[in-house]
Design a protein that fits this description.
Number of helices: 11
Oligomer: single chain
Order of helices and strands: HHHHHHHHHHH
Strand content: under 5%
Structural class: mainly alpha
Shape: globular
Helix content: 55-70%
Distance between the termini: 45 Å
Length: 246
């Protein structure tokens, strides 16, 4: 659990010890999830693995929801790091779009961490409610920003606003405009609609694989995924009319 610190002020010894203890609790909870699955998360078992009482654990995380929020935030951050790292390394195919590479980083992390992926995108934990616009939301937005940047790289805001989404109703596009965060970098409604569609496709194929629904494809799952992501990327880019010189 993080503490609010003034810039340039070194945390006290007590604060540093508290931060280390909180990290150990999160690490033990992650290990418990990997072994038993997210829905079997037990604060008592986590505390026992660290040689502490549940009451002592509550000094660091006052409720189960606080610990789950820390776990979800860390999982999103780790996933965002994996997606970003995928676009930073040398490419095996110079013609492979960075957006496709980012989606493959997403896929690899999900396959390597299926229980943590399930914590994020499986059936919701019973009685858990993530804080509105809290750390889980911010961590998720960081990952989305990588996809958004690589999907729409090179297009102007005017071009994104002119994207071909004629099948959508004006009412829905107006609703998307209302959902966009304020600021000059907010996506126009047509681009937001494309981004949501892409996200559903990217995530849906990964979820099918992680949860074992495409196992009959064996080692060919990666090849199918790359083809699908290439086609998806090219289709979206064709829908955005580039202006001369754009």
């Amino acid at each position: 659990m993080s503490t609010d610190e003034a810039p340039g002020v070194r945390p006290t010894l007590r604060e540093r010890r508290r931060a280390v203890a909180a990290q150990e609790i999160v690490g033990a909870a992650e290990s418990h999830i990997v072994e038993h699955g997210p829905h079997a998360l037990s604060l008592r078992a986590v505390a026992r693995s660290l040689g502490m009482t549940v009451q002592a654990l509550y000094h660091y995380f006052p409720s189960r929801d606080d610990l789950v929020t820390a776990l979800v935030t860390k999982a999103y951050d780790d996933l965002a790091d994996a997606v970003q790292a995928a676009t930073d390394v040398a490419r095996d195919d110079p013609d492979l779009p960075a957006m496709v590479i980012a989606t493959e980083g997403y896929r690899r992390w999900a396959i390597d961490h299926p229980e943590r992926f399930q914590l994020l995108y499986g059936a919701p934990l019973r009685h858990y409610h993530a804080p509105v616009d809290g750390p889980t939301t911010e961590a998720n937005r960081r990952m989305g920003a990588v996809f958004e940047r690589e999907l729409f790289r090179g297009f102007t805001r005017a071009e994104l606003a002119a994207a071909d989404v004629r099948s959508l109703s004006p009412a829905f596009l107006t609703a998307l405009d209302g959902m966009a965060p304020p600021g000059p970098d907010a996506l126009p409604a047509p681009a937001t609609a494309l981004m949501l569609s892409v996200w559903g496709y990217v995530h849906g194929m990964v979820a099918l694989e992680v949860f074992g629904h495409t196992g009959f494809l064996g080692t060919h799952q990666a090849e199918l995924y790359r083809m699908a992501m290439r086609n998806l990327y090219e289709d979206v880019r064709r829908r955005i009319p580039a202006t001369p010189g754009g």
